[in-house]
Amino acid sequence: MADSSAKKIVLSIIAATLVLSVLSWFPSPEPKDIGRLCINGIFCWFLFKGKTWARWIFVVLLALGGAIGVFAIASSHSGTEKSIVLLAMSVTYLASAGLLVFSKNVASYFSAPIQINS
Q1: Share in percent of the chain as helix, strand, coil (round to 5)
Q2: Alpha-carbon distance 117 to 113, whole Å?
Q3: Which of 66, 65, 42, 64 minimizes the C-alpha distance to 54?
Q4: In whole numbers, what is the pLDDT of the chain averaged over residues?
Q5: Less Cβ crowding at N or C end of the chain, within 10 Å?
Q6: Quick one: pLDDT band at residue 116, thresholds 50, 70, 90?
């Protein structure tokens, strides 16, 4: 069984992903934003359930999102506020991808059978 610290890391990644997804809607959500949130929610559920394929999809998407964000900051001349928000999102995505790949606790979470009621 995976330990509780691994579960907390995975839940933190899920929470950060969903919160950043909702925060990216402002000033108002578009239909594509709602669709993206639904897809994120489905992937988050499978990540929580310990599915290895969901882990690797998350790694790829988070790393891509983080890298694109860093590139956008470097090549953009937008305002400081927008750059700070984009930097925070990029760092969060890259750190989450790193935890999913390199954390031994997280690796144990995906190799152990998951018990939801524990």
Answers
A1: 80, 0, 20
A2: 12
A3: 42
A4: 87
A5: C
A6: low
Distance CA 55, CA 10 (A): 10
pLDDT in tens, 24-69: 777 788 888 889 899 999 999 999 999 999 999 999 999 999 999 8
Query: Among residues 83, 100, 79, 82, which one has the least CA distance to residue 17?
Result: 100
| Per-residue tokens: 83 | 């750059």
Cα gap 9→7, rounded to integer Å: 5
Q: At residue 111, what are phi and psi to the nearest 5 degrees? A: -100, -15
Helix 52-75 and helix 104-111: axis angle, to 10°? 140
Cis peptide before 29 (omega within 30 of 0): no
Q: Which residue has the tokens 């909702």?
A: 22
From the list 80, 71, 23, 17, the residue with the least C-alpha distance to 9 is: 17
pTM: 0.83
The crossing angle, in degrees rounded to 10, of helices 31-48 and 4-23 is 180
